[in-house]
Backbone:
């Protein structure tokens, strides 16, 4: 079907590939031969099994008979899970992909075919992921979404890093100019300046020629990795970030900082302090569309953090589909894609695969509408909206007080929290209001004279003035930022 073919091409394009689509095996033969002849060969061919004329197996066999300088790998796509074994063997095909093709399944198959998973397995078999890193390692996390900052920041602090945040590429450059970091985690898609350009400019700063910079993006394919490396980055992490893979990449980039303790098993991790955890777990496991195991894995088995993330998604993101639709109607496709891209990543981290797929599909359709005006974008957005509404009802039992109490923060802990507030103010992110509300009682304790003024400017959404006040508070603090603790553990 033309619609299915175009949707698959859109998924591939969104994931960073240059994708062409044809309607038959004969046309595929012609396209592969022409691309090879002009020196721009295809790296990969996805072929349907059942097609008019040549079927998928026959198409691939004929391509194998062409005098090509570079032969692509081939993935067989079929609507039947019972595709005959002799068809698979006759190729031979690099992989089999069942229909309907879901983004996550496509990503896993492509990563496997292109050898990324094999390389990752080699690293995993070679050495265990480290439990922690040496105290004193400073890490800059450049990420524009507050929830992603919270999730990644929590994982990194568990590993022993002193983590500071930047809300976009411009802020990351400024922070790198002011102080030295041992490693930078750089989101690729950010407002104002993306991670690629930010990396190029940071590399030009004194002392940053060899500092490890690791890309983070939902697009984890060959072209994305090449773009990251070309910009001067050292490695590439797909989103949502897997805690084990994060530890291994950090260990590769900072081998001198690895502590030799064995990584903790899930049962050995500190228990989360929730009185009714067993009851909440039982309720979450019963919810259709909730993958509790995946959510816990993404958050380092921190159940309280998962509950907090789910609650904030239902509170802060229930209107995402409507906001994306509004952006489309005003001609702001970039904003619509940003909203859906963020929602997709959060859903993957929180263990909501159905919402993740729906957001991925909507994002791909929005991207397709650039070249095909009149594309129906309302239907996939309606699906996202309905899923969000259903999940909000399903999660109405979640408590909203799972965040660690901020009144108990000492001044150094408050400074670290204010550093996480700064990029929200700098990027005019409305999440700054909720983030500051969590800190206000601690501010009254440590900075009683400045707390009310800062609260008022944030309430008035005067984020420029709020940022100025925040910087003044931080500059006058008795504990300098350079003395922030490297770990949450005394």
Residues:
């Amino acid at each position: 079907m033309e619609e299915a073919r175009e949707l698959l091409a859109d998924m591939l394009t969104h994931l960073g590939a240059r994708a062409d689509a044809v309607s038959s095996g004969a046309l595929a033969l012609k396209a592969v031969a022409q691309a090879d002849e002009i020196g721009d060969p295809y790296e990969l061919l996805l072929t349907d099994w059942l097609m008019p004329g040549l079927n998928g197996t026959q198409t691939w066999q004929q391509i194998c008979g062409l005098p090509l300088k570079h032969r692509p790998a081939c993935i067989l796509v079929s609507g039947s899970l019972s595709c005959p074994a002799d068809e698979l063997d006759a190729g031979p095909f690099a992989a089999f992909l069942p229909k309907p093709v879901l983004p996550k399944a496509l990503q896993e198959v492509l990563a496997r075919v292109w050898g990324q998973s094999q390389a990752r397995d080699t690293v995993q078999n070679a050495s265990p992921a480290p439990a922690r890193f040496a105290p004193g390692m400073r890490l800059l996390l450049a990420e524009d979404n507050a929830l992603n900052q919270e999730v990644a920041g929590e994982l990194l602090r568990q590993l022993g890093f002193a983590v500071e945040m930047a809300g976009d590429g411009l802020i990351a450059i400024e922070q790198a100019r002011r102080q030295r970091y041992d490693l930078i985690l750089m989101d690729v898609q950010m407002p104002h300046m993306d991670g690629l350009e930010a990396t190029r400019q940071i590399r030009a700063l004194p002392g940053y020629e060899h500092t490890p910079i690791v890309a983070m993006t939902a697009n984890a394919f060959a072209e994305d990795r090449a773009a990251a490396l070309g910009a001067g980055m050292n490695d590439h992490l797909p989103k949502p970030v897997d805690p084990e893979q994060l530890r291994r990449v950090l260990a590769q980039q900072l081998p001198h900082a690895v502590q030799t303790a064995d990584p903790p098993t899930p049962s050995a991790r500190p228990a989360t302090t929730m009185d009714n955890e067993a009851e909440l777990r039982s309720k979450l496991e019963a919810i259709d569309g909730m993958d509790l195991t995946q959510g816990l894995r993404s958050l380092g088995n921190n159940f309280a953090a998962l509950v907090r993330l789910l609650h904030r998604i239902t509170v802060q993101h229930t209107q995402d589909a409507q906001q994306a639709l509004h952006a489309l109607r005003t001609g702001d496709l970039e904003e619509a894609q940003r909203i859906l891209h963020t929602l997709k990543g959060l859903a993957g981290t929180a263990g909501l695969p159905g919402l993740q797929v729906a957001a991925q599909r909507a994002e791909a359709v929005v991207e397709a509408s650039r070249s095909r005006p009149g594309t129906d974008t309302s239907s996939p957005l309606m699906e996202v909206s309905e899923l969000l509404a259903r999940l909000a009802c399903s999660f109405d039992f979640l408590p909203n007080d799972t965040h660690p109490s901020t009144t108990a923060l000492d001044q150094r802990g408050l400074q670290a929290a204010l550093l996480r507030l700064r990029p929200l103010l700098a990027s005019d992110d409305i999440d700054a209001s909720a983030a500051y509300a969590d800190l206000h009682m601690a501010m009254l304790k440590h900075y009683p004279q400045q707390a009310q003024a800062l609260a008022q400017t944030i309430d008035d959404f005067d984020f420029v003035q709020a940022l100025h006040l925040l910087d003044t508070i931080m500059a006058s603090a008795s504990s300098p930022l350079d003395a922030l603790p490297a770990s949450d553990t005394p």
Observations:
- Residues 277-394 form a domain with the Four Helix Bundle (Hemerythrin (Met), subunit A) fold (CATH 1.20.120).
- The radius of gyration is 24 Å.
